[in-house]
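Spore germination protein
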Amino acid sequence: MPSVVGPIKINSVDGGVINFGDSFYLSPKSTSKTSSGSGSFNTGDFLNTNSGVNSTNPVDPDINDQNLSANA
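Tokens:
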């Protein structure tokens, strides 16, 4: 069935899906890449991390890792 949508103002969408009117297939997509060194994501009250010398190489020579395309 057709639908009529009036004036809309969307300030921001953070990880959600916005659907107007009829829909057959909704497929929200996202990709991300995080480069982090040793001990970067540790959490806790009494944390002791001994990493020594470390290095994180964020260089990505192939450029494309997870491509998003089309609707399916």
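The chain has no helices and no strands.
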